[in-house]
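Duplicate of earlier report; tRNA N6-adenosine threonylcarbamoyltransferase input re-posted below.
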Amino acid sequence: PLVLGIETSCDETGVGIVRGHTLLADAVASSVDDHARYGGVVPEIASRAHLEAMVPTIQRALKEAGVAASDLDGIAVTAGPGLAGALLVGVSAAKAYAYALGKPLYGVNHLASHICVDQLEHGALPEPTMALLVSGGHSSLLLAPDITSDVRPLGSTIDDAAGEAFDKVARVLGLGFPGGPAIDRHARDGDPKAIRFPRGLTGPRDAPYDFSFSGLKTAVARWVEAQRRDGVDVPVADVAASFQEAVVDVLTRKAIRACKENGVDHLMIGGGVAANSRLRSLALERCEDAGIVLRVPRRELCTDNGAMVAALGAEMVARNRPSSTWDLPADSSLPVTEVSVPGHSHPDPE
Ligand code: ATP
Ligand code: MG
Ligand code: FE
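Output:
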């Protein structure tokens, strides 16, 4: 199926077009630079930027894919979770295009899209899929017997998301926003063993699949403050590398344990933090040792984009899943278990 996907849950206006598992176009307009001076995403600015970028980005994607809108089999859109106003721009645009073109509309979950995108890289996802989802707002281990209808959380962060921890530590180190890519870069010149930061929830009595990164973030902040108080130069590269190591050590350990304990022989890693170099290399190393096949999409498919939404939409069409009704709502706190959103209205009683 030929599907166009629209993503506006945060600060990226993404429009992707796929045919089945083949990526035809991935157009992304980001308002990240407009947010940088505020140190985080400002919802009002994001919504306005989506509004301005929406139509040009759709046109760019159609041109890049070399397809006519009339040939589409459906239009998919992120219905949640995310920023309410930002989501609304995408959902409204998707409705308008789908209605005008006479195409079915599919409101889908942003988090399931972060997983399904790997089909564009490595083909059909195995069933069940074990996924480590690590992004700006979420960190979970998910078992998905069917990525279009059945996603089960095994565990999640009890405080900060992994990406949030990267962003906060980057701020402590004065590395700007967004912090993940900056920490990744600085960590390359640092020693991951320089400072032993705490590994959250790894005790024998702790929940095996839950995560906690808030204690780690505080430990890093305290360590840096102590250095500054003593008038010592903060070894930014070593702090970045040691912090990053603490995060990815826990993520990979728990993900592999989840695979083993659930009898799954492969692991998918998705979400913005899956772009992290050290997470990618350590996961590969540990998966090889454990006899687990690792699937991680290329970096630009890990962070928010429209192709991931199109990928999930195409899977919905391929499996004849019902489309959404025209009153499809945007749901800022859509749970990960709701892979698609049917809409409010019920069919008219005959
Ligand atoms: P969610 O998907 O939970 O709704 P989001 O869509 O805002 O959140 P993503 O775009 O999936 O988040 O990911 C953004 C996060 O990924 C940010 O916190 C960013 O710092 C982090 N990130 C991006 N690249 C890297 C990297 N190379 N290393 C570590 N973190 C990274
Ligand atoms: Mg973003
Ligand atoms: Fe995301």
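The chain has a mean pLDDT of 96.

Merging into the original ticket.
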